[in-house]
Amino acid sequence: MGVKDHKEVKVKKKLKLSIVVAAIVVVSIFVMVSLPVSYCASDNTLTWSYSLEECKVVTEDKSSKLKLTVKCASIESMLFPRSLKFILSDPEGNTVDTGYISSDDFVDGKETIYLDMAQGYCGQPKPGTYYLVAKTSSGKEIYNDYLTFTGAKLSIEEIRGWYKKYSDGTCALNKISMKVRNNGDLPAIIYRGRVRAGNEEDDFLLSESVMPGDELTINETIWLAYLESGKYVMHTELYSKDGQLLASHQRNITLKKTKEDVKTLGFEAIFAIGGLLAVAYLVLRRRR
Question: Which domains are present in the chain?
Answer without folding.
Answer: 35-149 (2.60.40.1930), 154-263 (2.60.40.10)
